[in-house]
Each structure stands twice: as structure tokens, then as C-alpha cells.
Amino acid sequence: MNNPYVMSFLNALVMCLALPLVGLVIQVLIHYVFGGLLNLVTRNGNTFYVFHNYLTAPGVVWHELSHLLVAIVTFAQIDDVVLFRPSDDSLGGVFFHPRGPILWHFVQMTLISCAPVVSGFVAIYGYIHIITTRSLSIPVHILLGYLIVCIVIHMTMSGADFELYFKGIWVFFVAFFAWSMYVIKHTGSYESVSFLNAVHTTWEALKLYIATR
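Now predict its structure.
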């Protein structure tokens, strides 16, 4: 496939859908696969509810703090913050209104909504870095392991997050498309704008960084 427009379109599409797809896959695995097995093994339909909503509370706090941090960084108007308050339809929330130039509203909505997924990967990297470069006691290993499990379980996107994400993602789609076209035009290489190639290059650089620490 050597059509620069098609390649740029597909690249922008994959880059825009990657984060919500990761969040969705994690949610399906946690809620329906792990949750179903946990309830089946314990023979109690409420086991996963207690585990997810209460025993992994640090992950909920991390999730909401991720929303809050990006909201602050992008200068959104923060109306209310609930770090942990389990209810029938939510475990917490960060309530905000976009502000600034109208185009910036869409950027804020997308970045804030996907923040827990991004911060989850940051936490995973930090965890791997710490356990591979530090000599830690068993209690510290257990604590860090518990915290990373909590974070991973909650590095998902709610229905409201998905709605906000797709309201503003078109701005990023246009930017990714323009970037891909520019790179192809100036390098003549289609592989250089491949999303999978970018992921592979980033992962190899990350492994090299960890190995040299």
C-alpha cells in the first residue's frame, strides 16, 4: 500500500483508537473474565464487586487524580473532585468545564478523558524500573505489587470518558494525519509513520534505558 493519503489516514485512525481500545480491553478482561472467574470460584456474586469497588480503592484514587492532574495542566475549570465515593454508577469523579479557545476545548476533553490509561502505563513503567534496579524488602515488593494491581484494574475509561474522548479526538486525528503526510513527503518512507513501528522503537528504547540504569 503506497498511497500516502491512505497510509496517513490509517495511521491517524490507529493512533486515535489505540488508547480507548486498550482501556476497553482491560475493562472487559477485568470485569467479565477475571470478575466472572472470581465470583465463580468463591461462589458469591458479590466477591468481585467488593474486590473492585473497595479492596482496590488506591486504583480509584489514582484514576481520579490522573483526570485531575491533566485537567489542571490543560487549564480546565474544575467544579468538583470526588476521589473515592462508591455508588451504583461510579466510584468517584472529576467534574470540569473546558475553557479557553474553542479548539482547546476539544483537546482538553480528549486528554482528560484518557488520562487514567496513560498514567497506568507510566505507573507500570515505574514499577518495572523500580523492581529491576532496586534491592527491595519483601514487604515493599508486596506493597508495590498491590498498588500496581490496583492501578491496572482501574486504568480504564468510563462511559462518560469515552463520550468526552470522541468529542475531541477529531482534532488529534487531523494533527496525526498532517504529521504522517509531512513525514512521508519529506522522508519518502511509509514505515517511519507506522504506529506499530513507533511502539516497537519506543519499547526498545525503554528496555535499553532500563538495562543501562
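The longest strand covers residues 77-82.
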